[in-house]
């Protein structure tokens, strides 16, 4: 039996588990449910320091045995290894800048602002279709960002249901049957490789075509990096925003006073989106990092070649950083939270996610003055996995 922090109690209430860790064991040695040894960093200052410490690396490409070598007896790391691809999220400088620069131009605040009318349109068309009771997650929060990133990248709309299944499996990879994860990751990347080939044969003016062109003309990235970057954008572009919308909506439904404040003053919306990200953000623990040499974090020495997970969810509730950290306050001055990460891997899609979040909450508040949960709160369930903190569904009534 593998002892893991990431058990049923954690899934039900990660905030209580992290509160205890911040207090008693801020740098905690544990294992994933599949038996891979990891260190979990939970305090705000330590999380930020770890994200910018060059002795903590993400270069798994050149250290392919790093995960395997942290496997416990009886453990199986193959599922984890299958989802550590060759893209910006899993490399160090200088490769990081090379891979990030290629797509960075598309995600600037200005470019994303120009996309806003299309986000509004997609959001409105999804909400036009719902009845008096619907699943906010499946009927709205999943398709909205998927359609937006799908259009940007140039992924045919009919392929999304399959893509979402592959993506969900790879995201939950650290707790599922490794064979299932390996199969999903392989099918997913095969699909994307074929799509890249199709765009090479017939460019379509989308981001994928531009990336294929950059590969051909500038040799700016390898064939594997191209496909794995498309994989990252597909997964990161839709998995997370879903839970910004649903965790935020749930937080409001649990706090009618805050919901009333927001309805009374929609000008609070941008600050409220930041508060949703801080209070109950979509990313629980980061993707993996490893120590290149012994590193002391928060007074605990972690030996060389160990895997490290920093918890953004935990950092954002650290009372040493945020006054009354466990309280939802839509009037809290924004800034400081690390829901989008910190350092060079800071989320590339943050402007897009913020735009999608602002549009989503404005539409929900404007259209549904009587928004409420359609099931008792105890019936809500949380997704398995280490990375994501989000519900499996959110049934709501609009009156
Ligand atoms: C509310 C929504 C989102 C949240 C909370 C979020 C959060 C994060 C976090 C925490 C990281 C850093 C991970 C780490 O250090 O291990 C990250 C990286 C990244 N995110 Fe997001 N993300 C969101 C939406 C998006 C969207 C819409 C895109 C669009 C494509 C995106 C693309 C990326 C990319 C490409 C990276 C890697 C950046 C790098 O390694 O330089 N994200 N995100």
UniProtKB/TrEMBL annotation:
Q: Which PROSITE patterns match?
A: CYTOCHROME_P450
Sorted UniProt keywords: Heme, Iron, Metal-binding, Monooxygenase, Oxidoreductase
- InterPro entries reported in the protein's UniProt record: Cyt_P450, Cyt_P450_B, Cyt_P450_CS, Cyt_P450_sf
What one GO molecular function would you report for this record?
oxidoreductase activity, acting on paired donors, with incorporation or reduction of molecular oxygen
Checking Pfam families in the record gives:
p450
Checking PANTHER family in the record gives: CYTOCHROME P450 YJIB-RELATED, P450, PUTATIVE (EUROFUNG)-RELATED
Q: Which family does it belong to?
A: Belongs to the cytochrome P450 family.
Q: What is this protein called?
A: Cytochrome P450
Source organism of this protein record: Nonomuraea jabiensis
């Amino acid at each position: 039996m593998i002892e893991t922090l990431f058990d049923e109690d954690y899934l039900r209430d990660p905030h209580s588990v992290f509160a205890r860790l911040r207090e008693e064991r801020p740098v905690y040695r544990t294992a994933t449910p599949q038996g891979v040894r990891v260190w979990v960093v939970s305090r705000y200052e330590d999380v930020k320091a770890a994200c910018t410490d060059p002795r903590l690396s993400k270069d798994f490409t050149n250290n392919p045995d790093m995960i395997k070598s942290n496997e416990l007896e009886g453990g199986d790391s193959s599922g984890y290894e299958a989802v550590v691809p060759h893209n910006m999220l899993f490399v160090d400088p200088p490769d990081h800048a090379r891979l990030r620069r290629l797509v960075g131009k598309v995600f600037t605040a200005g470019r994303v602002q120009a996309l806003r009318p299309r986000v509004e349109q997609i959001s409105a068309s999804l909400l036009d279709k719902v009845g008096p009771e619907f699943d906010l997650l499946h009927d709205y929060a999943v398709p909205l960002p998927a359609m937006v990133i799908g259009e940007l990248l140039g992924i045919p709309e009919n392929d999304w249901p399959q893509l979402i299944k592959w993506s969900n499996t790879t995201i939950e990879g650290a707790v599922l049957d490794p064979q299932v994860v390996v199969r999903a990751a392989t099918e997913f990347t095969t699909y994307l490789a074929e799509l890249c080939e199709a765009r090479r044969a017939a460019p379509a003016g989308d981001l994928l075509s531009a990336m294929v062109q950059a590969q051909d003309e500038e040799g700016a990235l390898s064939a594997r990096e191209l496909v794995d970057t498309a994989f990252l954008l597909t997964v990161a572009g839709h998995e997370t925003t879903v839970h910004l919308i649903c965790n935020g909506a749930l937080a409001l439904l649990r706090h009618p006073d805050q919901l009333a404040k927001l309805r009374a003053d929609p000008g609070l919306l941008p600050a409220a989106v930041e508060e949703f990200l801080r209070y109950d953000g979509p990313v629980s623990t980061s993707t993996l990092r490893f120590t290149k040499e012994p590193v002391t974090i928060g007074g605990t020495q972690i030996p060389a070649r160990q895997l490290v997970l920093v918890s953004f969810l935990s950092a954002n509730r650290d009372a040493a950083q945020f006054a009354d950290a466990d309280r939802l306050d839509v009037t809290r001055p924004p800034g400081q939270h690390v829901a989008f990460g910190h350092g060079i891997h800071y989320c590339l899609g943050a402007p897009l996610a913020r735009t999608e979040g602002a549009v989503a909450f404005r539409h929900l508040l404007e259209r549904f003055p009587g928004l409420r949960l359609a099931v008792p709160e105890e019936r809500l369930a949380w997704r398995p996995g280490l990375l994501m903190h989000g519900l499996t569904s959110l049934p709501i009534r609009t009156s």
